[in-house]
Specification:
Elements: H1 7-27, E1 32-42, E2 46-47, E3 50-51, E4 53-56, E5 66-74, H2 83-90, E6 96-99, H3 100-103, H4 110-135, E7 144-147, H5 158-169, E8 183-186, E9 189-190, E10 196-197, H6 202-211, E11 216-220, H7 224-228, E12 236-240, H8 243-254
Parallel strand pairs: 5-8, 8-11, 11-12
Antiparallel strand pairs: 1-5, 1-6, 2-3, 4-7, 9-10
């Protein structure tokens, strides 16, 4: 049939299914989430009117400066992300297109996903407390730590929780603040032995950190290259692999030493 058509007619006939395919793709939901910089919270202070870190059984220091945990905001697990959203996100520096399964566990409904994220946050808080007390040679029998952070799920605040506990109990170890009075932000999971793990979304989290006044950002060492992507001006990256290393880096920064690691 096509042999009897002019070239222009043939192109027009072939273009019809292509246009239909593109139209279908543009309207069909895709397995992606659109993420952007989210809220940050100072773990040394209050969040939504509630103290984030409450400690009993040991003297607590009055702290200066801030330790801000960072988040990303992503379209919900039931949201429809279409081709236009994906294309728009690829060309923006304040958004990222992420596979939905990398943001939300697959196979669960919204309620199940919320329960999963809440469970991860609770486990992260337990690990953060264990790591901080172990670093300080204290025990959970004598010191009780309560962590409260509303509307945030997942494990990525673990490092900042541990640092907040250390700052409230011991500061820099010499009577000063671990922050040196600065606004420090960061991200990273942590286990009970103080090992820091990667999280994801760090390029968006650095933007959230700088937006909220941070000048230093603690990043899992494995994600240095991601953190350098679209790094906001005026934000210094410090790579970390352990709680002990993060504390040492902040103390060195406070004292103006040249030993502060960088990405």
């Amino acid at each position: 049939m096509l042999s009897r058509l002019t070239r222009l007619q043939a192109v027009a006939v072939c273009a019809v299914p292509l246009v239909a395919l593109l139209a279908t793709a543009a309207l069909a939901p895709l397995p992606f989430s659109v993420a952007q910089p989210g809220m940050t919270a100072n773990v040394l202070g209050e969040n939504q009117g509630t103290q984030v870190i409450t400690i009993s059984g040991a003297p607590v220091r009055k702290t200066d400066g801030q330790l801000r945990m960072t988040t990303i905001e992503a379209t919900g697990p039931d949201a429809s992300v279409r081709l236009g959203d994906v294309i728009d996100g690829w060309f923006r520096t304040d958004q990222a297109i992420m596979p939905r399964d990398s943001v939300y566990p697959s196979g669960g409904n919204t309620k199940e996903i919320e329960e999963h994220n809440t469970e991860q946050m609770e486990q992260s808080q337990d690990a953060a407390t264990e790591a901080a007390l172990k670093y300080l040679d204290l025990t959970g029998d004598g010191v009780k730590v309560d962590l409260e952070l509303a509307d945030v799920g997942g494990p990525s605040a673990g490092l900042l929780f541990s640092l907040g506990i250390v700052d409230k109990l011991d500061g820099d170890g010499s009577g000063g603040d671990l922050t040196g009075g600065r606004t420090i932000a960061g991200t990273g999971t942590i286990d009970g032995d103080g090992k820091v793990g990667a999280v994801g979304g760090v390029a968006l989290k650095t933007q959230a950190a700088r937006r909220d006044g941070a000048t230093v950002f603690l990043v899992p060492k494995a994600e240095c290259s991601d953190a350098r992507t679209e790094l906001p001006e005026g934000l210094r990256l410090i790579p970390v692999t352990t709680l002990k290393g993060a504390v040492s880096a902040l103390v060195a920064l406070e004292q103006g030493k040249d030993s502060v690691p960088s990405c």
